[in-house]
Specification:
The chain is an alpha+beta fold. The protein is built from 7 helices and 4 strands, in the order H-H-E-H-H-E-H-E-E-H-H. Strands 2-1-4-3 form a 4-stranded antiparallel beta sheet. Helix 1 crosses helix 6, helix 1 crosses helix 7 and helix 6 packs across helix 7. It is elongated and about 55 Å long.
């Protein structure tokens, strides 16, 4: 029990410090974020539930867009994607923030509304993308902090938020005041 308590406490402290760092600047020294407003400016106020199809060339991407313009269902074109990891999920990237991506991809994502797909191919270091936004949600500062922590740790933000919430509950419910008669030490 002591090891679980200490491990959980250390993890929460680590995640809190990760969430408080800004992205690295050119001098490679992280700058501390000093307010929730500053955190919101770095993450934005929206998350997008998006899907994408990634291909190797711009002509391939343009052909897929032409098919979408003819009312072909996005999900029927997923098998053309070169992103094996997202093919299994129907091209889904899950709930993401634009800051998770390179600027061209992030800009395209920000400019799409729910139900829309990119009308022009989007170039990234990985290939050419056609992006579709299935849903958009406004995020609060607390979920932004959870999202940033989880993204830095390579974890799903929802799972991470649940983990942090449960860990906090476990820490507070198992806490025994050292002054109490029940305290037996750690």
């Amino acid at each position: 029990m002591r090891a679980i308590f200490l491990t959980t406490a250390c993890l929460l402290i680590s995640l809190t410090s990760i969430a408080a760092e800004k992205p690295q600047k050119k001098n490679n020294k992280p700058t501390q974020i000093t307010s929730g407003t500053e955190l919101a400016e770095n993450l934005g106020d929206k998350q997008y539930h998006a899907r994408h199809i990634m291909v190797e060339s711009e002509p391939e991407a343009r052909e897929i867009i032409a098919q979408l313009n003819l009312q072909t269902d996005f999900s029927k074109l997923i098998d053309k994607s070169k992103d094996a990891g997202s093919i299994e999920q129907g091209g889904s990237l899950g709930w993401v923030s634009p800051t998770d991506f390179e600027p061209p991809f992030a800009d395209a994502l920000r400019n799409l509304r729910k139900g829309e797909y990119s009308k022009k191919p989007v170039k990234s270091q990985f290939g050419w993308h056609i992006i579709k936004v299935d849903d958009v949600r406004i995020i609060t500062t607390s979920s932004k902090e959870e999202t940033k922590s989880a993204n830095k740790a390579g974890l799903n933000p929802k799972d991470m938020g649940d983990f942090i919430r449960k860990s906090k509950e476990a820490l507070t419910s198992n806490y025994k005041d050292p002054a109490s008669a029940e305290f037996t030490g750690l």
